[in-house]
Design a protein that fits this description.
It is built from 17 helices and no strands. With about 400 residues, the protein is an all-alpha fold. The protein folds into two domains: about 210 residues, Up-down Bundle (Growth Hormone, Chain: A); about 190 residues, MFS general substrate transporter like domains (Growth Hormone, Chain: A). Helix 4 packs parallel to helix 6, helix 5 runs antiparallel to helix 6 and helix 11 crosses helix 16. The longest helix has 30 residues. The chain is globular.
Length: about 400
């Protein structure tokens, strides 16, 4: 089957990963807020109580990540991601029948378990198996799928809710995942090149022998200080990324309109989408340059936003800050692979990814308290400090890997 393609089958796998991220993350995470108002109005509960379903989503993902790497190693990415897509689609369809908050909270947890494989662990684990060259670029393109999905599905969801209601919209989205994503995962995904008689793209016979058992054993890594260093790298990068949600409130304090705030938020999303692909390409040239670019542009962008001298400056700052947002799902897995190798990568990255979800669950409250007592400028300044710490950790990790 795979030998009929005029190009390396790894590109098919990368395209599958991109589509999976586009639909799963684009719909479940990036479009979740579109449903909140309609659901709260029909059920007669505050929007904040509906939105708590995301907290259950993150909590379930955090717990599942402790086991997901081992499960993916045992059962393979193809099976785990196909089953996760089926669970995701079926859960969305079932949400069309919900009338109680606890049902949404339970669904949030189930969706979080499925997203563990589809969003957090899938593409960062599969793509390095299929590519020896262009690893960063392929990871960046797959990660950009979440931003592309959000841009595509947000207006579609809004239109569907207005025309057919939120219940029918859940059915349509769930059916789309069952009809498109689950079959794509089951038919086209492959766990590794050897399953179809191939070598990773760009790998020579010599490098294949050298990299067959490249890296550290999982248990040995747990005793290494750099494991906890990279856990903190992911944790702090995700913490900084959460600042994005406070940009509209910050701009309101500067007397900018809602439309102007939305423009800056869109610039950050465009920066994130551009940054995921750009950082992937840069990291293929130099991991050190990738770390410096991620941290440097993020700090510069936040600095421009603090200055807030004009709307154009804020738009530029938002765009550059978007590159730091991109670093969460591009720079983190590439650093983990560079430091610890391929041997136990899925288990190691799975554990480090816990920091991404735990941080997202608590950072919103932490930034909110800081903004309340110290103002939004203090939020951006503290985020700059955290990015500096991330830069130091990333460069030290690469130094240790040499």
């Amino acid at each position: 089957m795979t030998k009929k393609f005029p190009f390396h089958y790894g590109y098919i796998v990368a395209a599958c990963c991109t589509l999976i991220v586009m639909f799963s993350t684009g719909i479940v995470i990036n479009c979740s807020g579109i449903f909140f108002v309609a659901i709260s109005e029909e059920l007669g509960v505050p929007v904040s109580q509906i939105a708590m379903y995301l907290s259950f989503n993150l909590l379930a993902s955090s717990i599942m990540l402790a086991f997901a790497g081992g499960l993916m190693e045992k059962f393979g990415a193809r099976l785990t991601m196909t089953l996760s897509a089926i669970i995701l689609g079926a859960t969305l369809i079932s949400m069309s029948k919900f009338d109680a908050l606890w049902e949404f909270y339970l669904a949030g947890a189930i969706l979080g378990i499925a997203l563990t494989f589809l969003m957090y662990l899938g593409f960062p684990t599969i793509i390095p198996r299929w590519f020896n060259k262009k690893v960063g670029l392929m990871i960046g393109i797959a990660a950009a799928g979440s931003s592309i999905g959000g841009a595509i599905f947000n207006p579609i969801c809004g239109m569907l809710i207005n025309s057919y209601g939120w219940r029918m919209t859940y059915i349509i989205l769930g059916a789309a995942i069952l009809i498109l994503i689950a079959p794509i995962s089951g038919i086209f995904l492959r766990n590794k090149p050897a399953d179809v008689g191939l070598k990773p793209y760009g790998e020579s016979k010599i490098s294949a022998r050298q990299n067959k058992n490249d890296g550290y054993e999982y248990r040995a890594v747990l005793k290494m200080p750099m494991f906890y260093g990279l856990f903190m790298f992911g944790f702090l990068m995700s913490t900084v990324a959460s600042v994005f949600h406070f940009v509209p409130k910050y701009m309101a304090t500067l007397n900018f309109s809602l439309e102007e705030a939305a423009t800056v938020a869109s610039a950050a999303m465009i920066g994130s989408m551009t940054g995921k692909v750009g950082l992937g390409w840069i990291n293929d040239k130099s991991l050190t340059a990738g770390v410096i670019t991620t941290i440097g542009l993020g700090i510069f962008g936040l600095g421009l936003m603090i200055s807030a001298s004009s709307l154009n400056i804020l738009i530029g700052g938002g765009f550059l800050f978007g590159w730091a947002l991109a670093g969460v799902f591009v720079q983190t897995p590439l650093l983990v692979r560079a430091v610890f190798g391929n041997k136990s990568y899925s288990q190691i990255y799975s554990n480090i990814s816990i920091g991404l979800t735990v941080s997202a669950a608590i950072a919103m409250a932490a930034w909110g308290y800081l903004a309340e007592f110290g103002g939004y400028s203090s939020v951006f300044i503290f985020a700059i400090v955290l990015l500096g710490i991330c830069g130091a950790i990333g460069l030290r990790a690469l130094q240790a890997a040499r």
